[in-house]
Design a protein that fits this description.
Keywords: ATP-binding, Nucleotide-binding, Transport. By secondary structure, the chain is of the alpha/beta class. Helix content is about 35%, strand content about 25%.
């Protein structure tokens, strides 16, 4: 399994005022080592969940402290980290940049398969593995929300990363497509870290983090984490 390490990782942003003066800490400090196959992250909107996830592949750099994936620092070895860590955004249409899913998968495979013919064959294999061949040549705008989400996952997983990070993957999905996505995630060989408001999905993890006001306030079993979170949000 992939090893993710955060050592005193803090993220701060500028606040209104003269440049270089005041900042506001939106996350941290965070000290964590994640080695489990499935980790879920829960918390209210604005709690810092998305910022935490973006630290894992270098989309956000720590203001202080360090983040590493399998020993690779996300700042100093950013490109190598991003080859190991795939990131799936909440809205898949932001990830599907080509007219069709087939073209998106082929685009993601350019580095691994410089030859166009090899790339086409590899893309066909990816689409078949995810059961998306019949949808591959449709406009991504004509796909349903669930189909887009699966296509976006096929795109980011085509290069066979070690870790898949998902930010609210079920927000735009109905229950049927949520169950379909969950079955797909359960069958992946990759380590998975996901942030979600879907507590049922969170309970399927091996370990759950609760984030509140930029701090990890609980780290442990999913059942206990959900109980802690519900008590937190039910406070007057």
């Amino acid at each position: 399994m992939t090893r993710v390490s955060l050592e005193g990782a803090t993220v701060a942003v500028p606040v209104d005022g003269p440049p270089g003066h005041r900042t506001r800490t939106i996350l941290g400090p965070v000290d964590l080592v994640l080695t489990e196959a499935r980790v879920s992250v829960i918390g209210a909107n604005g709690s810092g969940k998305s910022t935490l996830l973006r630290l894992l592949n270098g989309l956000v750099s720590p203001t202080s402290g360090a983040v590493s994936v399998d020993g690779l620092d996300t700042v100093r070895h950013g490109s190598r980290v991003r080859r190991r860590v795939a990131f799936a955004f909440t809205d898949p249409i932001s990830q599907l940049v080509m007219p069709t899913g087939r073209e998106d998968v082929e685009l993601s495979l350019r580095r691994l398969h410089p030859s166009r013919r090899e790339r086409q064959l590899a893309a066909e294999g990816v689409l078949d593995r995810f059961g998306l061949t019949a949808l591959a040549d449709q406009s991504v705008h004509d796909l349903s929300g669930g189909e887009r989400q699966l296509m976006a996952l096929a795109v980011v997983l085509a290069t066979e990363p070690a870790l898949l990070v998902l930010d609210e993957p079920t927000t735009l999905l109905d229950r049927r497509n949520t169950q379909r996505l969950r079955a797909l995630l359960d069958g992946l060989p990759q380590s998975v870290v996901l942030a979600t408001h879907d507590l049922e999905l969170a309970l399927g993890a091996d370990r759950t983090l609760v984030v509140d006001a930029g701090r990890i306030v609980f780290d442990g079993s999913p059942t206990e984490a959900v109980r802690h979170y519900l008590a937190l949000v039910d406070q007057p």
